[in-house]
Amino acid sequence: LRRARAWPNDSDRASAAGRGRLPLIVGGHTIGVVTFCVSREERRWSPEIVNRLRLIAQVFASALAGRRAHAELVKEIDDRLQFESLIADIASQFVTLDSDRIDGAIEDAQRRLVEALDVDRSTLLQLMDGGLVFTHFWSRPNVPAVPVPRYTPLTWWPWSRSKTAAGQLVAFTSLDELPVDMPDREHYRRVGTKSAVCLPLIASGRGIGCLTFSSTRHERAWPEAVLNRLSLIAQVFSSAMARTRTETDLRSALDE
């Protein structure tokens, strides 16, 4: 393809061999090449014929680009529908789920979402005794676990924690987007995170924790549509955990 960019000015030199080669260009980028050959005899390609063949090359390039765009659109729509179906399935699962099965269901939902989003891990942190602690976690088998024990008060990521505690969503494609005067960059880098989204968990108007999804292999963007769906999942998890806490408190009161 590097040579193809020189072919429009190289037609006369190729004519001695009875062969015309033209690049297929879309939006200033070469996507392929089309050739016209004569095998019976040598011939010279006149400028008039070359110009017409260039027009044909443009037609071919446009057609191929249109097919690619259509295939990408169909895939995008299919992926979106599959993700919408997954969100609906997870949300409906928690409606009638017994409280003693909620922890396992959350981590299974984290696994399904990580795989659907093509990210690497998901963590859920809850506010307990005035501090955030890891309670739920799932990551791909080849991704190192976050080096923080479960149910241990967390002091990392102060900026991100303050944002989610205030009910704000945090999403970044690159660590360079984080504030330079906060240690969050170094903390994310220490656990291998390149891109992440942190969603607040809110129940009865107060923050009870946060839900995160992160990528360690490469940077990735977080489209608004995806963030909206993940916010819905955060609400589902919040409601389920709040229900579990209420039932636990009720059982304790009844025991007393």
Characterise the protein shown here.
This protein has 256 residues and is of the alpha+beta class. 45% of the residues lie in helices and 22% in strands. It has helices spanning 11-15, 47-93, 102-117, 158-165, 184-190, 224-255, and strands at residues 19-26, 29-37, 121-128, 131-139, 170-172, 195-203, 206-215. The strands form 2 sheets. The chain has a 5-stranded antiparallel β-sheet, with helices on both faces. Strands 1-2 form a two-stranded antiparallel sheet. Helix 2 runs antiparallel to helix 3 and helix 2 runs parallel beside helix 6 (224-255). The longest helix is centred in the first third of the chain and has 47 residues, at 47-93. The chain is elongated and about 100 Å long. The termini are far apart. Residues 1-17 have low confidence and may be disordered.
CA radius of gyration: 28 Å
SSE order = HEEHHEEHEHEEH
Count all strands and give the number. 7
Strand residues, percent: 15-25%
In terms of per-residue confidence, which ranges show pLDDT below 50 for 5 or more consecutive residues? Answer: 1-17
Main pleated-sheet profile: 5 strands, antiparallel
Shape: elongated
Into which percent range does the helicity of residues fall? 40-55%
Number of helices: 6
Structural class: alpha+beta
Integer average pLDDT: 84
The N- and C-terminal alpha carbons lie at a distance of 78 Å
Strand order of the largest sheet: 4-3-7-6-5
